[in-house]
Every structure is written in C-alpha cells, then in structure tokens.
Design brief:
CATH superfamily: Gcn5-related N-acetyltransferase (GNAT)
InterPro entries: Acyl_CoA_acyltransferase (IPR016181), Bact_Acetyltransf (IPR050832), GNAT_dom (IPR000182)
Protein name: GNAT family N-acetyltransferase
Radius of gyration: 15 Å
Strand order of the largest sheet: 1-3-4-5-6-9-7
CATH topology: Aminopeptidase
Helix content: 25-40%
Keywords: Acyltransferase, Transferase
Structural class: alpha+beta
Order of helices and strands: EHHEHEEEHEHEEE
Number of strands: 9
Shape: globular
CATH architecture: 3-Layer(aba) Sandwich
Oligomer: single chain
Amino acid sequence: MLEDLVIKPATPADVPALATLINSAYRGEQSTLGWTTEAHLLDGQRTDTTALLELLAAPKATILLCTTPDGHLCGSVYLELQEPALYMGMLSVAPTQQARGIGKRLLQAAEAHARQHACSRMRITVISVRAELIAWYERHGYRRTNETEPFPTDTRFGIPRQPLELLVMEKELS
C-alpha cells in the first residue's frame, strides 16, 4: 500500500481539504481516533485556510500532500528551507489512517526534499509534553537539541489548556 501512495506539492486549490485534514489530525473529537491528537492539550483549531495560503506563498516553503492512488488525501507535511536545515512541521495523517506507515512515508519524502535542496539536516519542533511523539521522532533518527521555543500565542493555532513550550529536534542527513 505505501508504495502506491502519491506524494506531490500542494497548490492553493488543495487548501480547503488540507485545512480539514490537519485540523482533524490534531484537534477535536475526530483527532482522538488517532494517536497524534493534541485535543487534550489545546482547544480550537490547528490552522486555517488563511494561514495555509500564507505558508504556500512563502518563497522557500512547500506543503507536500500524500494521497491514495484514487486521489484521497491522507497526509501532509509543511517544509521550509532554512539553510543549512530544512524545517519540517505540521506532519499530519488522517486519524483513521494513522499507524499504517503514512507518517513514515511523509518523513522520507521530507528528508528527500531536504537532500534535493542541499540541506544537511532536518529541524522540527514538538510540544515538549508529547512524549509519545518525541519518542516516534527519536526512533526515526531525530535528537533533542536542548533548545526550546515558546508556544505561539496566536489563537489561530490553538488555545493551550496548560503552559506549553516547543522542543527543538534535529536529524543530520547523510
């Protein structure tokens, strides 16, 4: 099944479906069907169409979509060139499709994108209390940098139920 998945860059026409996918993966009742939910940590949405259009318009950024052969959107990831690193964020898989290798496939595509753009490492941020997600990234070669960043205060990205910070992780690419 994984070899049949199609990875391609998103376009502005993809944004409404993309917003639905990302929000369902992180927030709300539907997100609790998967293991990557943040619904217990944050209220509100994860993103909106305006924010996604802004990300797509940035000159060094792209969003990769993962679709089934019949065109069903099942995952996505945001990538931004920050030479010599490629920043990766919003890795999203539809809750009912999680734990099937789609996230790993998107991770591989993101790392291939980094290599194509001569980036020597990947950089991500993860909510520091997401132990299971941090462990998943560590299993895929990402390491804690001992750096943290403040959690965004813009309520367009969620309303924290507790104080949160972002843990910075990196992976050296060979």
